[in-house]
Amino acid sequence: MKKGFKSGFVAIIGRPNVGKSTLMNQLIGQKIAITSSKAQTTRNRIQTVYTCDEGQIIFLDTPGINKAKNKLGEYMMNVAHETLEEVDVIMWLVEPSTFIGAGERHITDVLSKVKTPVVLVINKIDSVDEKMIFEAINAYKDLLPFSDIVPVSALKGRNKEELINTLIKRLPDGPMYYDEDTVTDQPERQIVAELIREQALRLLDKEIPHGIAVVIDSMKERPNGSIIDIDATIICERDSHKGIIIGKQGSMLKKIGTRARVEMENLLSVKVNLKLWVKIKKDWRDNDILIKNYGYKNN
Questions:
Q1: Enclosing H/E stretch for 192
Q2: In the chain, which ranges are E strands?
Q3: In terms of CB atoms within 10 Å, which of 62, 146, 149, 210 comes out highest?
Q4: How many other C-beta atoms lie within 10 A of the C-beta of residue 47?
Q5: Residues 101 and 224 in one domain
Q6: Cα(178)–Cα(57) distance, rounded to whole angstroms?
Q7: What span, in angstroms and rounded, lies between the C-alpha atoms of 73 and 91?
């Protein structure tokens, strides 16, 4: 182990839509976590890795902390809460506002019960003036005994280096857990499934995306390595949803597939032939077996 090398685990938490996945992608310099403006975008605990000369940070992007409405919601909250006990540092993302709502107060209550150091990260500083940033810091600083407060813009990458340095400073001396070129522990199939779900989240009506899961049925590289054939199924909960996902003469499904394919080709650096199907599994989000089958299982 290199002398003075720091390493450890950092949980990224915050209300849904505050920019957790965008920040994680920005910090590691590659898109791993999917992003959208809708709640419940992140369902699993996604592990990504940042390595530099001073240390290695393993980021855990947890589902947004809020009150659970079904078994899938309970699973997501369990993942988020368990993560907080296991990490070296918690990074809590908030928006640059002086309004501290019920969502933030719920998170404050959760954090007050854990002993892990908390770094407050005020995100989206590109969207407000400097005065508002200072007012937000003042509004939050007495809620908890924060180790540090760092304002950033996940979208623009502002203060990225300062945040990295702050986190490394808080980590214990430790080994390099992953090779320096590793950026995630997620299997490719899971990332590919998430890229399809991301486009569905972005393109579909508000209610439908919460009730979908994506299963990769097969993923095979052709013998000459020039193309990867991917067959995937979008699972939804109702007949009416299936019709909306497919769209008039298959137009919506085609749009989801086209956009997802572009993201996959960027990720895999190879041409992708993507085929999508849609199936109905009524109320799968309240079925323990189906939740596990669709890739949501406790780590």
A1: helix 188-203
A2: 6-13, 46-51, 55-61, 89-94, 118-122, 148-151, 213-221, 227-236, 271-280
A3: 62
A4: 19
A5: no
A6: 10
A7: 22
Structure tokens at 203: 């393109």
Residues 11 and 147 placed together within one structural domain of the fold: yes
- Cβ neighbors of 123 (< 8 A, separation 6 or more) are 14, 18, 19, 23, 93, 94, 95, 96, 152, 153, 154
Alpha helices of 30-70 — where are they, by DSSP H? none
Amino acid at site 290: L
The reply to whether 178 falls in a domain is no
Averaged confidence pLDDT in the chain: 83
Q: Report d(CA 96, CA 113) in Å as an integer.
A: 24
Q: Are residues 46 and 151 in the same domain?
A: yes
How many domains does the chain fold into?
Answer: 2
Q: Is there a contact between 234 and 204 (Cβ–Cβ < 8 Å)? A: no
The structure tokens 């008039």 sit at: 248
CATH number for position 262 = 3.30.300.20
Provide the 10 A C-beta neighbour count for residue 276: 21
pLDDT, mean of residues 70-82: 67
Q: What percent of the chain has pLDDT over 70?
A: 82
Question: What order of strands is seen across the sheet that includes strand 227-236?
Answer: 213-221, 227-236, 271-280
